[in-house]
Specification:
Layout lengths: L2 H8 L14 E10 L12 H15 L11 E4 L5 H9 L5 H5 L5 E4 L5 E5 L5 E8 L3 H16 L6 E2 L3 E2 L11 E8 L1 H5 L3 H10 L2 E4 L12 E6 L7 H47 L5 H16 L10 H8 L2 H8 L5 H22 L1
Helix pairs in contact: 3-11, 8-9, 9-10, 11-12
Enzyme class: transferase
GO molecular function: protein arginine kinase activity
Keywords: Allosteric enzyme, ATP-binding, Kinase, Nucleotide-binding, Transferase
């Protein structure tokens, strides 16, 4: 399969769109945790109960599609090869927990993969909506609509005082996790981010790596999300996060402008060195690839590099992950083989950009 065709088939359609402030906010996500009344929660369910839950949910949700989303496709984790599940994790369509630890887990996916409904993850349902750029409000509208549509067909576990009941106490209440993926290279380069992070935490928000809790912040990419789910409405939670993100966008833009004014030649050198390494390397570890891609993307956004799409960071941060490298190769690869393939894929992707000009 050619790289161009592989990219076309591998990258989620929603990722190919340019959303608001997409030079800094790569994506927005709204996730709702829900459980069903009169069914054992997944963490305590037997295998038979877990199967019954998947059947009950999928039977009810596949009958009549949700208008704006269309027909959903059901994927059973037990039927998928390990690498296919890894690819779904790398695309943020399922969680590592659903891939590796859940009992008879499943996922319902929309055609453009902007909606993913995980079944038998930590909770019976994890309703997730993904948008490109800074679109938290749009994500909340879609997630709320889906939530109402599901509640018309299934009965949720709900308490008048505590709200939606969840396996983990930190999700009780609204069950809402709102998050954005931000590219903040200038704040990292100017060493301002370390001063900002404690203030963000004090506001009830948390900053994590690219794959959420426990993951590393690769390529200057940071996931910022709410911690509090109880005592606030969904709208208030989203608005609080939105306000902080808007400030971060402004601070990142100011830091980029400062770099251009005070250290332009040094910044150009750094950006073009990374571009040269990516264009010519024969071996590339994932951490280095993420950092070099981040610097090239910064160069593109600042107009220092022309003729290359800004989507290259979004694409290659996913395509150079282990699951995708092995999917493209059609075989299991050792770590050294993955480093070689990663370098070759990046070189080929950059050459493909030249052909498209």
């Amino acid at each position: 399969m050619s790289l161009e065709r592989f990219i076309s088939e591998a990258i989620s359609p929603w990722m190919k769109k340019d959303g608001p402030d997409s030079d800094i906010v790569l994506s927005s996500r709204i996730r709702l945790a829900r459980n069903l009344k009169d069914f054992t929660f997944p963490i305590l369910a037997t295998m038979e109960e877990a199967k019954l839950i998947v059947n009950h949910i999928s039977t009810n949700l596949l009958k009549n599609p949700y208008n704006s989303v269309g027909q959903l496709e059901l994927l059973h984790m037990d039927d998928l090869k390990a690498n296919v599940k890894k690819v779904l994790v790398e695309k943020h369509l399922i969680s590592p927990h659903l891939s590796e630890e859940s009992k008879h887990g499943a996922v319902l996916l929309s055609e453009d993969e902007s909606v993913s409904i995980m079944i038998n993850e930590e909770d019976h349902l994890r309703i997730q909506c993904l948008f490109s750029g800074f679109q938290l409000s749009e994500g909340l509208v879609l997630a709320s609509g889906l939530d109402d549509w599901i509640e018309d067909k299934l009965t949720y576990a709900f308490d008048e005082k505590r709200g939606y009941l969840t396996s983990c106490p930190t999700n009780v209440g609204t069950g809402l996790r709102a998050s954005v993926m931000m590219h903040l290279p200038a704040l990292v380069m100017t060493q301002q981010l370390n001063k900002i992070l404690p203030a963000i935490n004090q506001l009830g928000l948390v900053v994590r790596g690219i794959y959420g809790e426990g993951s590393e912040a690769l390529g200057n990419l940071f996931q910022i999300s709410n911690q509090m789910t109880l005592g606030k409405s969904e709208q208030d939670i989203v608005e609080d996060l939105r306000g902080v993100v808007m400030q971060l966008i402004q601070q990142e833009r100011s830091a980029r402008e400062m770099l251009l004014q005070s250290s332009k030649i040094q910044l150009e050198d750094r950006v073009y060195r990374s571009f040269g390494v990516l264009s010519n390397s024969r071996i590339m570890e994932s951490k280095e690839a993420a950092q070099r891609l981040s610097e090239v993307r910064l160069g593109i956004d600042l107009g220092l590099i022309e003729g290359i799409s800004g989507n290259i960071l979004n694409e290659l941060m996913i395509l150079t992950q282990p699951g995708f490298l092995q999917q493209f190769a059609g075989e299991t690869l050792s770590p050294n083989q993955r480093d070689e393939r990663r370098a070759a894929l990046i070189r080929e992707r950059l050459k493909l950009e030249d052909v498209r000009k």
